[in-house]
Please model this.
Amino acid sequence: MLRRNQSIVEDFVLLGLSQTREIQFALFLLFLIFYSLILPGNLLIILTIQKEPQLNSPMYFFLANLAFLDLCYCSITPPKMLSDFFSSHKTISFKGCILQIFFLHWLGCSEVFLLLGMAIDRYVAICHPLRYTSLISKAVCYILVLVSWSIGFMHSIIQVILILPLPFCGPNELNNFFCDITQIIKLACTDTNAIEYIMFFNSGLATLMCFILLLISYGVLLIKVRTNSDRGKSKAFSTCITHIIIIFIMFGPAIYLYCHPFQEFVFDKVVAVFHTVVFPLMNPMIYTLRNKEIKQAMLKLLGKIKVQSG
Model:
């Protein structure tokens, strides 16, 4: 255990993605171009859903919230990662590290339960279409979003409460470009086996269970759609497939990272980049590319903006 006269770690050194200057510069340009293209696209999705009356439905309401969550999520680690490419001494304070962990897990868990809310919406739309408008009202949509944010907050608070009392007396190097529970716990100057198991159940196992639950629910919906003879069969099938793609994209890296918290693997950094930087911004774009209504609405909105600016 840490004694009172021992030094306490006040900041952590982030080793980053690479130590080679040329590779760092190439990665900086790559991520900068990616952000310059994708960030405005996600903002346009939110603006389009808010402005266009034909997109005033629960499905698009959830999509706008998903885009907002992803934009917030991608504002936690990438800005510092980009600035650290030009820094010779990449550090983050202990408080900054805790804040990163808190917001990453708050927003990430909120997105998981938002996807569960979207699955409930699709279930009612496909299995109870005549009662859809009465069951999935605006009030229900707001409640589902609020519940997802609340559960995400509670999940994240548990992580922080478990980390804060831990003593950190050195070393203080994190072999990554951001702080996360799987790395910081290993630096504690005490036995953390019990805490690691708690966090494994709170993050890894919980993520895996939600993933399986979502796959089963959409599998049932696909079977229901195939046996349905309504005119909206193809649209419902396409929507379910889109949701399944997003589930794999989101849950795959998360399961990889949090279902083996006791050891480090070669591809951890690569998966972390996709999990925290690339995939979150791609999720709403995939929904958009597979949906004709929102694509047409976006083109219509862009046309209005050009006319007004002209």
Remarks:
- Residues 1-7 have pLDDT under 50 and may be disordered.
- The CA atoms of residues 230 and 236 lie 10 Å apart.
- The chain has eleven helices and three strands.
